[in-house]
Amino acid sequence: MTDKDKQQVLQNLATQMQLAQDTIKQVEDELQKLGVTQKDLPKPKKQDLVEPGSADSVGKIIEGQFDGQNMIGPDGKVYPVPANYASKSKLVEGDTLKLTIAQDGSFIYKQIGPIERKKIIAKMTLENGQYIAVIGEKHYRVLYASVTYFKAQPGDEVTIVVPANADATWAAIEAVISAS
User: Fold this and answer.
1) How many whole angstroms separate alpha carbon 56 and alpha carbon 47?
2) What CATH number did the domain enclosing 143 receive?
3) Would you state the pLDDT for residue 15?
């Protein structure tokens, strides 16, 4: 495992730990509102407890990196991210996502680690059926769902979002500035 991989794993674990602590704090706050302490709670029923990873658990949870279209799992497996979710959430290459695969097989994504971002003004073009945001010599692919959501057209000036400290192939559309 490289130092970069180790740092990413540590970052993901820190995020999971913080989410768990936040959940515990919310439960404690609700108990306080009810005037109940933790020791006043009844013992959980054995049948209500679910072992993580068991067949009765919520489902399988996988964390991975968004590549502009899909989530790449830690094993290199590709998981499809709905284009409308990626567009509306303005996901950027490098964002960390959590995928829960529910018992019924449905995929539920949540962005848990946004990468540092920067916004840039670009010109929309259409090349070989693919919408492209152009800034000088740099070309960024954009999701078709983003183009239709923002009603962008070739020639429009748009604000895009890209990773601040990494080279990217894909960009998220933030807004249409001026129509052609």
Assistant:
1) 11
2) 2.40.50.140
3) 66
Token reading at 20: 């768990």
Q: Residues 113, 115, 116, 122: is their CA dihedral positive or negative?
A: negative
Six token digits for residue 110: 């949540």
- Domain of 2? 1-49
Q: Phi/psi zone of residue 131: left (φ > 0), alpha (ψ -120 to 50 degrees), beta?
A: beta
Residue range 101-108: mean pLDDT, rounded: 85
Structure tokens belonging to residue 99:
């995928």
Q: Judge whether 107 lies within some domain.
A: no
Between CA 165 and CA 48 the distance in angstroms is 46
- Compute and round to an integer the Cα radius of gyration of the chain: 21
The 10s digit of each residue's pLDDT in 122-136 is: 999 999 999 999 999
- pLDDT tens for residues 84-96? 999 999 999 999 9
pTM: 0.66
What's the one-letter identity of residue 24? I
